[in-house]
Structure formats: structure tokens, C-alpha cells
Amino acid sequence: MPTSQTIPSSTIESLYSKCVATFVAAVLPTSCIVCGVFQKQSLCVSCSKILAYGGLFNYECCRQCGITLDGTEVLGQRCYECAANPPHYDETYCLDRYSGVLQKSLHQLKYQKRLAFAHGLAKAWNQFLANELEDIDACYLLPVPLSPQKLCARGFNQSWELARKIHCGKQVLSLSNALLRRHHEQHQASGNRTLRNTAIQGMFYINEKYLDALRGKNIIVFDDVMTSGATLNEIARVLKENGALRVINWVLLRTHRPS
Ligand SMILES: [Zn+2]
Ligand SMILES: [Zn+2]
Fold first, then answer.
1. What is the pTM (predicted TM-score) of this model?
2. Which of 86, 92, 120, 243 holds its CA 20 to 30 A away from the CA of 46?
């Protein structure tokens, strides 16, 4: 008598989830995160083209801080400020400019708390940068943390919501709480880089549970927006003080060079 083979319930559940996802994708339209047009992708073909041709990732940028380079700086691949006063981080990769087409989508995520935009923004990252960065020599990806108070107020950390959805290579492990942030009543002071760096000192620390794991490793830090670079510089300083070898910034949107 032939024996009947039982299909594991996990396989059935996985097949069921795939069928539902395929059905939903085929039947329900998706709104483009930039222009709002209903079609099949979270970034429509037109907006995709704008980013493909105009995205900051296409431009000659400072290897260390990600800012666009002047003609005279291109040869050295570093801006004058990084050459004169090198930050603690080693490299920076940015998807686009803060003033570009993705700014409103990021605001929808951060200020309107529309988490679906994290999915669309991460897909944009994956579409244009994931291939280039998948073989990166790093072990961990850490989001820039919020303080517990800020996390309670917002309900989520936008950098983690993005970082957890981007493709970062099999060798890279994403850790949501290895890097922690103290609450400071006074936020980053405006003014020059020195003032901002002083204001942010002591704000970040490493979760004791991960101290050994991070030592001697190359680490990626993910931030949604990079402006002066003071936050990422302080994080890189803390990571290196605790034994990290190299610190690489991955940034969704980068502001212009200050005039
Ligand atoms: Zn669009
Ligand atoms: Zn630079």
C-alpha cells in the first residue's frame, strides 16, 4: 500500500502568504510615494527615472562625508573640509539630496507617522544602491537611535524602520538597539561645526550587551538625513573609542554643502 506524504504546515503557510501577496499586488493598485499616481510600484516609472538620473548617488561626492565635490576636489575624492579636519567616520553613501524628490515622502514617514512610506523609501534605496553596496566589508548595520523620550513620542525610529527593510548583504547583521541615545533637553545647537560637536558630546553610548561583538569590526550606521554630520561624527567617535575599525555611513537624504 503506498504511503501518503504530509506537506509541512510551515510550507503551506508560506505558500498561502505568497499567494495572498501576489493576489493583492495584482488586484490592488499602489500609490507612488512621490507623485501619488496609482499604479503597481511604490515608485512609479516617471519618478524612478527622475531619481535614476538626478539622484545624489550618481554624482561625484566626497568619499568621507558624501557631499557633492567642487571641480577642484574631484581628483582627491574628498572635500576641503574633510581633508582639513577629517571626521571620525571613514565613508558615506547617500541616496539623494534632501531637496530632491523623496523629501516629502520622508516627512510623511517622520511627521505624519505613515509607516507605509518606510517601505517605499527602502525600496527606492534597494532599487538604486543595494547592488553597489551588497559586498561591503562590514559586519553590522546600526540605525541612528532616538532617545527613549523621543521614541515614546513618535512611536517608532524612522532610521530603524528604513534600515530593517534595506538589502545590506548576507554578511551584515542589522541591530536595532546596539547603539543608544540619552535624552538631552537642549537639542543640537545651531551654529558652526565646533559648537554642534560640543553640544552632542556624551549623547550616544553602546549597549553593554554588544560591546564585545562590535569590537574590531567594520560598522555601518544608517541615518535618514545627514546635515552637518555632527551626529554621525559623534557616533563614529563613540564606536571607534570602543574598538570599531571602520565606520561607514549610509544616508537616505543629504543636505547641500553649507554656503
Ligand atoms: Zn511617481
Ligand atoms: Zn567631505
1. 0.86
2. 92
